[in-house]
Amino acid sequence: MKEINASEFEQIISSGENVLVDFYSTECPPCEALAPKLEGLEKLFGEEIKFVKIFRQGNRELAESLGIKSSPTLLFYQGGEEVCARLNGGIKRSEIIRELKHIIGKEKVNSISSAVEPTVTQVDVAILGAGPGGLTAGLYLCQAKINTVLVDIALPGGNVSTTHMVSNYPGFIDPQPGYMLSHYMSEQTKRCGTTYKVAVDVTHVDLDKKEITIDGLETIKAKRIIIATGTSPNKLHIPGEMEYKGQGISYCATCDAKYFVDKEVVVIGGGNSAIEEADFISKFASKITIVHQFDKLQANKMAQEKAFANPKIKFLFEHEPRAFRKEGDKMLVDVEDLKTKETKTLTTDGVFVFIGLKPNLELFKDKLKLDQWGYIVTDEDKKTSIDGVYAVGDVTSKKYRQITTAIADGTIAAIAITKEIG
Fold first, then answer.
1. Are 146 and 125 in contact (CB under 8 A)?
2. Is residue 133 within a helix (H) or strand (E), and if so which, with residue range?
3. Measuring CA to CA, which residue among 215, 209, 98 is closest to residue 151?
4. Closest CA to 254 of 152, 165, 355
5. Phi, then psi, of 421 in degrees rounded to 5
């Protein structure tokens, strides 16, 4: 894709051509996951629409003038005017295709897409999810000379890649940036020989047949499947949340904190993620207000002590957000006092939501035995209720969800599979 800057932007969109613009950032896992999807789509549709990208950090004034507050953000132009819906965050290939149909026509998009021949890939083991558990399983399996493929809708690393610092991973004296720890794990598994199919859309999964279809184009057939799909941030499900997602509301401090230099933000939550990420955000923002529903924090003591000692961080206990609104460049957060039931409005530049996680099981949750909280039940070898299907990491039913416990799960599943088919 051609890279442009702010001075070229107006000329390109006013050319009359169809244009897709990708505003991306560095150290942004969703941006890195999106890049290969756009490159693949450019090869297919490049004659119908111009694909360009802009480095958001280097063109901050333009991004702010367009109201772009999250990376990545895709904008679509036709005849010099912005059209279609803006896409941001973890953007799927299918979502881009949907918007392309509005611009160049459904029939043309379908015609071009239909020319791509579907393929079938045979492997011994398919790992669905490339977080620490999946990467570790891939490492052990490839060392055992078992043909293995790792499939993920993003880049390898899982939630670790969007964690600011990891201070309790064995082997490192100093705290490690999450994206670097993910990089080390990924490179080790890749160099061992595991095949990667990342930054893809998983369009269908048949656990009984051991088949995974990606991007609607390639079907992977395996003898065994390991589910390592991890978790995703919970949503508040209140008015304005989806409307302003990526336009003032973020779920990733690593991705977006850098855009709030000397600005005020609100952080929703009181657990480890909320408090640790608030500390990271304080490196940029001038003031942080943490809104928490309980009268005390649930984060670990070390994180709490650090937050309470941070002069930039203030606390609003026993309050819950009820709605998000926007007024000019400001976000308005309506919060309810849970004791008095009175509602007041906080005015801020941005909102970060960290209220826990949910297991990523949308494609097959009805097929597996789950616990009462919706996590996959496994035995001591990490086998699920379906023969030949294993599950590891945060997606499983367990007492503690840590990087180290996910790695242990991946080790166990890989060794068990190796003894079966090695």
1. yes
2. helix 132-143
3. 215
4. 165
5. -120, 0
Model pLDDT for residues 319-364, shown as the tens digit of each residue: 999 999 999 999 999 999 999 999 999 999 999 999 988 999 998 8
**Structure tokens belonging to residue 229:** 């799909």
Cα–Cα distance, 406 to 170 (Å, whole number): 14
- In 3D space, the residue among 274, 283, 282 whose CA is nearest the CA of residue 233 turns out to be 274
**CA dist 353 → 177, 378, 383 (Å):** 21, 31, 34
Burial class (CB within 10 angstroms; exposed 0-12, middle 13-18, buried 19+) of 357: middle
Q: Are strands 357-359 and 211-214 parallel, antiparallel or unpaired?
A: unpaired
Q: What are phi and psi of 208, to 5 degrees?
A: -65, -40
Beta strand pairing status for 350-353 and 264-268? Answer: parallel
Tokens of 87: 């896409």
Domains of the chain and CATH, by start? 2-114 (3.40.30.10), 119-232+357-421 (3.50.50.60), 249-353 (3.50.50.60)
Burial of 45 (0-12, 13-18, 19+ CB in 10 A): buried
Please give the Cα distance from 411 to 135 (Å, whole number): 10
For tokens 């029939």, name the residue: 107
Amino acid of residue 255: C
Please list the residues that pair with 314 across neighbouring strands.
Answer: 289
**Helix (DSSP H) and strand (DSSP E) numbers for the chain:** 11, 24
Q: Please give the single-letter amino acid code of residue 355.
A: I
Of the candidates 122, 134, 17, the residue with the CA atom closest to the CA atom of residue 409: 134
- Residue in 153, 237, 253 with CA at minimum distance from that of residue 203: 153
Element (H, E) at 287: strand 287-292
pLDDT, tens only, 201-256: 899 999 999 999 998 889 999 999 999 999 988 999 999 999 998 889 999 888 78
65 within 8 A of 8, measured Cβ to Cβ: no
Beta bridge partners, 163, equal none
| DSSP string for residues in 245-274 | BTTTEES-HHHHGGG-TT-EEEEE--SHHH
Contacts with 289 (C-beta within 8 Å, 6 or more apart), sequence order: 264, 265, 266, 267, 314, 315, 316, 346, 348
DSSP, collapsed to helix, strand or coil, labels residue 37 as helix
- How many CA atoms lie within 13 Å of 111's alpha carbon, on the beta-carbon side? 6
